[in-house]
Fold this protein.
Amino acid sequence: MTDERRTIGTAGAAGRGNRSTPPSTAARALAGDRSVPKKPVKKAKPQPPAQGESKAAQSASAQSASAQPKSAQSKSTQSKSTQSKSAGRPAAKSTRQLGGAASKRPRSTSSQRTRSLAGERQGPPRLRAVTEADAAAAAAAAALDSESSKSSLIPGGIPLDEIVVAVVQAAQRVLGADWEGRLAAFVAALRRRLSGEFEVDEFGFDSQITEVLSAAVEPLAERWFRLEVRGVENIPAEGGALLVANHSGTVPIDALVTSYAVHRYSGRNLRPLGADLVFALPFVGQVARKVGATLACAADAERLLTTGELAGVWPEGFKGIGKPYSERYKLQRFGRGGFVSSAMRAGVPIIPVSIVGAEEIYPLVGNVPSLARLLGLPYLPITPFFPLLGPLGMIPLPSKWIIEFGEPIRTDAYEPDAADDPMLLFNVTDQVRETIQQTLYKLLVDRGNAFF
């Protein structure tokens, strides 16, 4: 502490105070404003400029010196006068003068006094040179930070934790919220399959392959096509039935999605009846057998239906999936009624199935018949994106799908020999066809825009 603070309240004498000056007066004087008597501040004399200094620098320094606020000069003058008066008067009188001066001016806050005192005592900050120890510590800290950041990176520089989060989010989006249980079931089925613990019926149907294929089709049907299924209650919970549906889409994806819908919403497996070309194609024919498809002939159809299976047939065949986009949702001929004959002989109901959405996935705008015959295909489709975009043109467009299972048409009321009556077969076939056609018109109105 300075000498002035030690002598406050003692009339200039050193000590702890006297009776003539109460402690409260000394405390107020100590906590008052800046008018407390201080030692006169000695001003540094300006040094003469160097010989090599320019006149412009001299004038700039003169202007900065003259630009000091007048308030600072008045404060210093007042401080000097106060100090000169306090030297020859008693401490009590000087204390009263200090109190009066403090009442005339606004008191400064404690934070302002602290900052002013810190600025007067400390002065400008001092800089020091960086030592070798400081440089070594900074290098060690930088090396530690780099090691911690590299520990979570793969060799390509991509954060490993971000990759794990992205994989988990993709699995949840594709497989749903219970993706862990589905993945565990898939791994268990794969283990049983590798060990040879699986069964195949007389048609080549493999239930484990069907489960895997259904899980693979689910993201396509639910997320991409936004499938809506109606009339699931019309599918019998047990016993045989024949599902008859319209066929469209350039590529027979509608059969795949219909099989998925039956398995997903009714819990039963659909046994499709396919054309000869399906089983003649390499790899496709083998997979078709594994998922329960069989040849579309009367013998296989009747055997499936009599054993209590759900059989599916698309009577339009290649005429339906190969029709141009301008004829969309206009049913082609349903054949000669062979599927009706099989249903009558087995005594099972016929369930009409109407599918809306398959016509828009690959809009057929052209065909190359000569090249199709050369390749042994019924048609060679040309769409707005294929073959223009190559493999990218094979991606189906995200149309909105609706599948409705209609009310069953009973066949068990007919006589056993009614399956050989061509007129009866034609009438029942036409009834099924008209039911599907009228349902298609209704579903188109309910759906509205094909993509939104």
About this structure: The chain has a mean pLDDT of 76. Strands lie at 228-230, 241-245, 270-274, 294-295, 310-313, 350-356, 366-367, 381-382, 402-405. The radius of gyration is 48 Å. Residues 192 and 198 are 7 Å apart (CA to CA).
